[in-house]
């Protein structure tokens, strides 16, 4: 659980079938273009999240704001998923994706509060030493958010589906970005 000036965030495991309609509405929304599922059918979303649920090194979660679904979070082991062979992982590396649900009533600072809650969740595990992300190089909005919570870009990499900006955030960098003495 993470509490901010915007409210309380909790995270629960995603139910691939029970959450599929909700996720479908999120990942096919125009604001989710970087999620690369714009043309996905409901069955495609079910299949993708069933695949993730069955994967030993990839997990999906629904983030709740004040008890209501508000974002999607994925965490993965970059030794086996997404970044295999694209960089030299270190012990304690955890990969992350997040997607904020579309809304007609945006709240200033909400997305930053979400990424902070996601990072709180990842660093709640004492084994996590560093969070790794690989957003599309053209996604300037997420680069700014990542920087705001402590991520440092390392280099561009070529993934099969995109050119990505490989970035890392240690626990110390995250705490420093939050203004917490380390």
Description:
The protein is an alpha+beta fold and 182 residues long. It is 28% helix and 30% strand. It is built from five helices and eight strands; from the N terminus they run ββααβββαβαββα. It has helices at 20-27, 42-54, 110-123, 140-148, 171-177, and strands spanning 2-4, 7-13, 58-65, 68-76, 93-100, 130-133, 152-158, 163-170. Strands 1-2-3-4-5-6-8-7 form an eight-stranded mixed sheet, with helices on both faces. Helix 1 crosses helix 2. It is globular and about 45 Å long. The two termini are 21 Å apart. The mean pLDDT is 92.
Succession of helices and strands = EEHHEEEHEHEEH
Low-confidence stretches: none
Tell me the β content: 25-35%
Structural class of the secondary elements? alpha+beta
Count of extended strands: 8
Largest sheet: 8 strands, mixed
């Amino acid at each position: 659980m993470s509490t901010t000036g915007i409210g309380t965030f909790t995270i629960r495991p995603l139910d691939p079938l029970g959450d599929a309609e909700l996720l479908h509405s999120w990942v096919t929304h125009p604001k989710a273009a970087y999620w690369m599922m714009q043309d996905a059918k409901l069955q495609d979303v079910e299949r993708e999240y069933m695949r993730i649920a069955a994967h030993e090194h990839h997990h999906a979660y629904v983030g709740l704001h004040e008890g209501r679904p508000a974002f999607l979070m994925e965490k993965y082991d970059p030794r086996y998923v997404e970044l295999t062979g694209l960089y030299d992982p270190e012990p304690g590396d955890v990969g992350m994706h997040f997607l904020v649900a579309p809304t007609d009533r945006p709240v200033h600072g909400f997305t930053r509060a979400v990424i902070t809650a996601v990072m709180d969740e990842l660093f709640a595990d004492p084994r996590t030493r560093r969070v790794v992300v690989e957003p599309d190089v053209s996604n300037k909005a997420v680069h700014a958010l990542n920087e705001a919570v402590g991520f440092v870009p390392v280099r561009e990499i070529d993934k099969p589906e995109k050119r990505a900006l490989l970035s890392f955030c240690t626990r110390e960098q995250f705490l420093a970005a939050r203004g917490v003495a380390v």
